[in-house]
Amino acid sequence: MIRIENLQKESLNSTSLKNINLEIKSGEIVSIVGPAKSGKSTLLKCINLIEKPTSGKIYFKDTEITSPACGLDFVRKNIGMVPRTFNLFPNINIIENVITAPVNILKESRPEAYQFGMACLRTVGLEHMSLAFPKDLSDGQKQRVAIARALAMKPEVLLFDDATIALDRATVSEIFEIIRKIADKGMTIVIVSDELSYVHDISTKVVYIENGAICEVGTPAQIFDNPAGEKTKAFINRSRKLNLEIVNSGYDFLGFTSELDRFARNLHLSERIVRNVQLIFEEVVSQNLVPYSEAYYNIYPITITAIYSEAEECLRLQISCSGMQFNPIEDSSDISTLIVEKLSADARYSYVNGTNCIDVVLR
Questions:
Q1: For the domain 241-362, what is the CATH superfamily, name and number?
Q2: Tell me: the pLDDT tens digits for 295-318?
Q3: Which candidate, 98, 210, 287, 326, has a CA 20 to 30 Å from the CA of 44?
Q4: Domain locations in the chain?
C-alpha cells in the first residue's frame, strides 16, 4: 500500500533520514521504534508530507505522492495522522471538531458528515460527549477525539505519532485498545511509540531506526526477542536497564513510579511484579531513604537502578545512598521489613565505602 524508495531528509531542526526503503502492506500494523531523536517522527511526517523529503519517492498504491503533480488533498484524504498533541479547536464542540474537515475538505454534506462523525465518536467511546467542549475533557478523552477526527476523513492509512506520550498508564492502555479495534476493521496503521510492550503485542511488523537509518525490520518476536543487528541488540539491552536519581525531597514521586511502571511493562513482566516493584520503591525509598537523607544533612543523591536479567528471569532493583550506615530493610519499621520480605524473592543489604546498598530481586 505504501512504498518508500531511497528517502532522504535533511533538516536543521530534525534528524536527517538516510536512504530509507520500506514497504507497508495493506492491513499491516507497523511500529517504528528506536532511540530519542533517531528520526522516527520525521519518517512518519514524511509519509503524509507534513514534512517534505529532500529526495526519494513515496508511493501510495500506484500514485507517487512526492511528485509535484500529486496534490496534498489526495494525501490528506488517504493518509490520516493522529499527532502527539490534540490540536482541537477550543471554541467549538466535539462533534464540530470531528466533522469540520470532512465538510470543508471532502465537501461532504453536514448531515452525512454528522452521521459518520458520530459513528467515529462511538468507535472511541465518546458518542455521549459529542456536545461537550475540549475544556471539559481529560487529556485521554481529547486524544480519543483526535482519533475520531482522523477517522472521519475515511483514510486508508492512519499514522500515530507518539499519541500516548503524555497520558497515564490506564489511558495508554485504552488508546492501544482503540488502535487494535480500528486495525481489526482492516485499517492499515503505522505507529511511532516508546511503549514497547504494547508495540510488541499489537504490531505485525516492527521497524528499528537509529541515526536516521533503518537498521532492522522484522516481526515483534524477531526484533524484541532475537534481534539480528548489533545496534538493535544494543537498543533492546538498553531497554532492559533503567537508571533513576533522586537529588532532593521535592522529587516527582508519581513521575518516578510511572517510569518504573513503563519499564516493567515494556519487559512484559507480570502485573504482580509491576505492582511489587512500585511498592518496594515506595517503602524503601520514599518511606525510609528520603526521610533518612533529610534527617542526616541532605545526603543525596539516592540512585535507583532497575535491571532485567533474561538469564536469571528476574528484575533486580539496586538502590544506594551514601552517609551513615542505615539498613532500610531492618532498621526501619517492622511493616517495612515485612513488605520487602513478602514482595521480593531476595533482599540484601550491604555497607561499602560509606554507601548503603540495597539489592532486591523480584521474580
A1: Histidine kinase-like ATPase, C-terminal domain (3.30.565.10)
A2: 776 678 889 999 887 667 788 889
A3: 98
A4: 2-232, 241-362
